[in-house]
Automatic annotation (TrEMBL):
Signal peptide range: 1-21
Broad EC category: hydrolase
Keywords carried by this UniProt record: Hydrolase, Signal
Protein name: beta-N-acetylhexosaminidase
Amino acid sequence: MKNILFGFIALLILSSSYAQKKNLVQTPVVEPSFPVRGFCIAAPTVSGVDPFVKFIAEELAPRKINVLILRVDFNYQYQTHPELRDSIALSNADVKKLVAVCKQNSIRLIPQINLLGHQSWAETTYNLLRAYPQFDETPHVKMPEKYVWPNPDGLYCRSYCPLHPDVHKIVFDIVDELCDAFETDAFHAGMDEVFYLGDDKCPRCGGHDKAELFANEVRTIRDHLALKKRNLWIWGDRLIDGKTTGIGMWEGSFNYTHRAIDMIPKDVTICDWHYERPDKTPVYFAMKGFKVITCPWRNPAVGQVQYQDMIRFRKESTPEMKENFQGMMQTVWSDAESFLKGYYSKTPATGNEINTPWNCFRTIFVK
């Protein structure tokens, strides 16, 4: 209860006048001194590598973007586990093109594979659980012919069982291979929106504390990465009490994983995403001792307030707290090709069309 009140009070103290500002989109003050000026998107397809390399050089670099997270998942020609590759996937040579342009422009390149949750989407089970169905946390839940939400099974995305004795050997093989290919010192494990965890019917997880299960998986991944001096990044939603704060079940947790915030190592970097309101949860993470990055998506007005909040948090913090507020990262939840099509479109945006990830990106990261 003390921790819940601590977080809730922090949110109240630092709440902004967003309700009055939400219709204003102004050019923000440029703050190049953010330790992180980031961009997160799905890795390009094979045919999209060269256009994306051009985008990095001509659009990300001039905006002083210094961190690029590419959601790769199974879009790579893994040698350790070829059974996990997508049918068409990036080669090592394709990845080296991305590595080279990022090095040339002093951009830290970080790959992502969704771990724990997001092992399916809608009617589709993804490669890990297709190849290794024994890792499924909820094998009794059958994939629907047509997915709808809500549904009787509470199915959003499938998870792997974190206590299966063989899962980490497979997962860490591809994590290590991908990190080596990207020549990176960090890895993003996703770990957002985990609804299936500690299922009562799981012979290994059933009855376990969900916060402990989540924290143990974070620690297991973090400790493995640390063997090669790599840092773990995750999304922050499972560490927020969605009910007490009113943030809800998507941007916060309703299955009690939020208590894991006091059980995981402080060197895990938190990517704190809020897309419809500029909630002040960076303060909560920073006061818990974590480095935190604010992540907008498609609403320029929300992104602008979040950007100004981050400037203020850093400016008004104690020296001990300032560096916990690491900066901003634009997130894009489409394939790279669709984003570039919208980004380079010559058609003026009007009405609701202004709420796009490319408009949000241009608003918060000006050239």
